[in-house]
Automatic annotation (TrEMBL):
<feature type="compositionally biased region" description="Basic residues">
    <location>
        <begin position="1"/>
        <end position="16"/>
    </location>
</feature>
<keyword id="KW-0539">Nucleus</keyword>
<feature type="region of interest" description="Disordered">
    <location>
        <begin position="1"/>
        <end position="29"/>
    </location>
</feature>
<dbReference type="InterPro" id="IPR009071">
    <property type="entry name" value="HMG_box_dom"/>
</dbReference>
<dbReference type="GO" id="GO:0005634">
    <property type="term" value="C:nucleus"/>
</dbReference>
<dbReference type="Pfam" id="PF00505">
    <property type="entry name" value="HMG_box"/>
</dbReference>
<feature type="DNA-binding region" description="HMG box">
    <location>
        <begin position="22"/>
        <end position="90"/>
    </location>
</feature>
<feature type="compositionally biased region" description="Acidic residues">
    <location>
        <begin position="93"/>
        <end position="110"/>
    </location>
</feature>
<keyword id="KW-0238">DNA-binding</keyword>
<dbReference type="GO" id="GO:0010468">
    <property type="term" value="P:regulation of gene expression"/>
</dbReference>
<feature type="region of interest" description="Disordered">
    <location>
        <begin position="62"/>
        <end position="110"/>
    </location>
</feature>
<feature type="domain" description="HMG box">
    <location>
        <begin position="22"/>
        <end position="90"/>
    </location>
</feature>
<dbReference type="InterPro" id="IPR036910">
    <property type="entry name" value="HMG_box_dom_sf"/>
</dbReference>
<protein>
    <recommendedName>
        <fullName>HMG box domain-containing protein</fullName>
    </recommendedName>
</protein>
<feature type="compositionally biased region" description="Basic and acidic residues">
    <location>
        <begin position="62"/>
        <end position="84"/>
    </location>
</feature>
<dbReference type="GO" id="GO:0003677">
    <property type="term" value="F:DNA binding"/>
</dbReference>
<dbReference type="InterPro" id="IPR051965">
    <property type="entry name" value="ChromReg_NeuronalGeneExpr"/>
</dbReference>
Length: 110
């Protein structure tokens, strides 16, 4: 007796707010994927994006460390860029906090 027939409730996705700050660094695979996807589109224009991803992933897995090295170098440069931008972003925020503390201390002295 008791069970109701019907659709199961599906949880709604919660949209995340974009955080201010630098764009996260790309991995070596992402650099390879971007480059390879362009040539793959011209070679096989009928492939769906999911099929392209499978082909690219398989090719990445077959690459030797020597062949992956240029992409790893790009990834490390991008990581350095990210760390630098992150440091530059944090520095002004810390200065503002210090200024606010100094202002509040000055008003407390009165």
């Amino acid at each position: 007796m008791g069970k109701k027939a019907g659709k199961a409730k599906v949880a709604k996705r919660v949209k995340r707010e974009k955080k201010d700050g630098p764009k996260k660094p790309k991995s070596a695979f992402m650099f390879f994927s971007q480059e390879r996807r362009i040539t793959l589109k011209t070679e096989q224009p009928d492939l769906k994006i999911t099929e392209q991803s499978k082909v690219i992933g398989a090719e990445w897995g077959k690459l030797s460390d020597v062949d992956k090295a240029p992409y790893a170098e790009k990834a490390s440069q991008d990581k350095e860029r990210y760390n630098q931008e992150k440091a530059n972003q944090l520095a002004p925020a810390e200065e503002e906090e210090e200024e606010k503390k100094e202002e509040s201390e000055e008003s407390d002295d009165d």
